[in-house]
Amino acid sequence: MINAAVLTLMTLSAPAIASPDAVTPEVATANVWLEQLDAQNWNENWKGTGKLFQSNLTQEQWTKTAQAVREPLGSVISRHILGVTKTTTLPGAPDGEYGVLTYSAAFTNKASAVETVVLSRDGEQWKIVGYFIR
Q1: Averaged over 54-60, what is the pLDDT?
Q2: At what angle do helices 25-38 and 59-70 cross, to 10 degrees?
Q3: Residue 118: beta bridge partners?
């Protein structure tokens, strides 16, 4: 299951920092994916994930996990991108092209949260391979 391992791998990589204001393909992909998550569209949300994510969580496991984590937070009030980090290596993952996006978010039942979305390039597309909220 992708969890603390991805958080560790994000901090150990040597990234390049991109402007958080740029709406790059990975930012656009993450934003659409987060909107599905906000709408509790768990099945479509899982389908937007990459092989690395899906090899660690079945669709049913993702649905249970996402419901347990997101439903108690309530509706999204606001979300702003804080940063975009690009890297080619993540510990425990094959070398590739990755984007690590952090967002500041507020929910009806949690005034302040930080969401992290990790994406991997899969051909011409970006796919979600990790999601964390604290």
Answers
A1: 95
A2: 70
A3: 100, 130
